[in-house]
Design a protein that fits this description.
Length: 133
């Protein structure tokens, strides 16, 4: 069994649950039912817009940059410290309530458990390996 950092949130792997996992270390990241939608930003892999994400840490706000006039910072998985997406910060004045304060998980850095199978978030194909989610 993998060793996880203290206070790591884990979701049950049963037929009623669905959630995103880090591709690299299988750390649990966000419940599927909290996903607002799919987002495609040119220049990066498509991603999933989520309201609540766990087991991640955002880079410091001073490292922010702008994507389509929205201030963002990278978010990193607490299990492997890899950048797996962005957190969209609130603009002043607010410009778009759909995006602000939410997270984008890049589909090339996440898998998802659909209640029955572990799947690749980009291709939606089942993932078969010996790694424990």
């Amino acid at each position: 069994m993998a060793e996880w950092p203290p206070n790591t949130t884990r979701f049950p792997m049963d037929a009623e649950s669905g959630f995103f996992l880090c591709t690299h270390c299988r750390n649990h990241l966000a419940p599927l039912n909290d996903c607002v939608g799919h987002i495609a930003w040119p220049g990066t892999a498509p991603g999933y817009l989520c309201r609540i994400v766990v087991n991640v840490r955002p880079d410091h706000f001073s490292t922010r940059w702008f994507r389509y006039h929205l201030p963002v910072v990278y978010i990193r998985c607490k299990g492997c410290n890899r950048a797996i997406g962005e957190k969209i910060h609130v603009c002043d004045p607010p410009t778009n309530d759909v995006y602000e304060g939410n997270y984008v998980l890049h589909s090339d850095h996440v898998l998802y458990w659909d209640g029955h199978d572990l799947r690749d978030a980009a291709s939606h194909e089942p993932v078969y390996d010996n790694s424990s989610p």
